[in-house]
Amino acid sequence: MNATTAASTCSGECKGTTEGHFHSSKSIQHLLDNNKKWREELMKRDSSLFDRTADGQHPPYLWIGCSDSRVPAEEITGLDPGEMFCHRNVANLVVTNDINVLSVVQYAVESLKVKDIIVCGHYGCGGVKAAMENKHIGILDTWLRSVRDVHRKHKEELDALPTEEARYRRTVELNVKQQCLNIFKTNVVQHRLGRPDQPGIHGLVYDVKTGGLKELKVDYCGYYAKLVGEDSLHAFPDGEPTMGLAHRRRNAILDLADGLEKEPGMVRIRYMARMLKREADLFSPEEVDEAIETIKGQMDDPNNSFMNVKHLIAYFAPMKPKENEALAQLPTLLTMGDARGALKHDHSSSCIDHDPHSLQHLFENNRKWRDQVLQKDPDFFERTAKAQTPRYLWIGCSDSRVPAEEITGLNPGEMFVHRNVANLVVSNDINSLSVVQFSVEKLKVKDIIVCGHYGCGGVTAALKNAQIGLLDNWLRNIRDVCRTHKDELSKYKTDEERERRLVELNIQEQCLNIFKINMVQRRMGLYGAPRIHGMVYDIRSGILKELEVDYHGFIAKHMGVFNLHTFRDGKIPSTKPEFQRNMILNLVEDHEEEPGTVSIRYISRMLKKETELFSEEQVDSAIKAIQGQAKNPQNPFVEVNSLVSYFAGDEATA
Asked: Do 423 and 452 form a contact (C-beta atoms < 8 A)?
């Protein structure tokens, strides 16, 4: 074997260009072709779908699931675009200080008003397994701490199980239940649990061996009774979650009056009338006016501009005798906070009882889908259950109209997925970085895709700079993109044009954010993968297209700033000889016995481990050829330059 043979370039899978863009390789063209077929088939089935969903999304479900490529949310539930808002991360976690997932929950509950929130885990979860093994795995260590907390909390139950597999499966279930409770504890959810727009919270588990979904029972009432004191800041006004109209009306009145009394128990009539009329799900304007007139007619001074809150509650929320006694005992010196505590009612009222039929549609769809898969490929689930080997990592928006696997036509097992509001990759977001680490280091994906879409609600909200709570902080990253490209965006005449261009710029920025991650650059420099692609989806047409991202231009412009993370020669390698050279230089770093030399035994052993770049025969032939040309063939050391020259050619010598 000679240098010329060794220096043959990679196949099309290592394709790059001197301009530093990753153009459509066969792998990306495959997705674009699938997208075209999917769009045509969908148009035949429902020609008005894209027109109908383009102007807004109204999904009844929020899905929080694992990124695992074998658990494609929309596919296993049989839902169409527009029916399910989606967030996916490693091990389907809802961490209380994770702004990524909390932004998704806030947007789904407050803006989209979803009816049901689903947390779905799956047996065979790599994240749960990694947490139980407790290995040192970088960023993932911190992310998976939440799973270890679940394991520690239920240690006695888990230790009593007979096998490791049984403990593994039970941990998956317990983790799902804990994440349901974590959602239940969030203020944005609890605030609605006593109202008509309360979302149901469901725990599901998916079996990768059978393709089946099942629901887990989560004891919200037991949890609430146990921790109501500790979680009082997030509790309901009367200390127990309730569902009757009278209770919901009372809770709304107490909530609106809280902290606004001129005197204890007294609130301004004009303010209260205005605010109650805004709660259209609970009060009609006519009811409010009638209540005010009735109460004023019973007051000592009908011209008084203030009214007693307990009179308003008594009008709208007539209660049982015990409850009326508690209300009657309210002295005027009580603050509204005390009033809330005094308004405890008996525990006969219902807790968070979910509609048992609300998910029946999904289970029926799941059975049909599973039967269809088995009919086409009887061994499919058994084969994919052993391990996942996805080629792609997809980082996309949570928008219900952009189901990743559906629009790309990929099967379960082919694409690892992370979805969040506005498809962001933030440098200090452990959620998305854990997904990137798992997919790059563990799964060794070949392509990373960042996909945004025109008509993105997150981008629109960022442009308008509206005050939207927690989402403000998450969307600040898009405002940074807007500020960076302010001159370009200001040239567009309409808001729609600016929004569409900002969607594209945001995608390109997130691609660069991934490109800046050290673990990504390291694998790109050593193996030529993953390649990073920007794509944009048009919800009005269903068309997926690729955007160009200038990585070389970024390197040239910011070489000094990102010097720690750049490639060895300041450019992106694109051929196998370049990857082989980089690997040799990486392996000998800090292992040189003398400057420029390395132990033959060490380098031979290490190169043979890198089977993506070197075969055992190639390594043995290289060592033999170099030793044959050396002055002392018995020397246990080899010159690094000679090794690099053999594999990569003279022009690539270090």
From this structure: yes
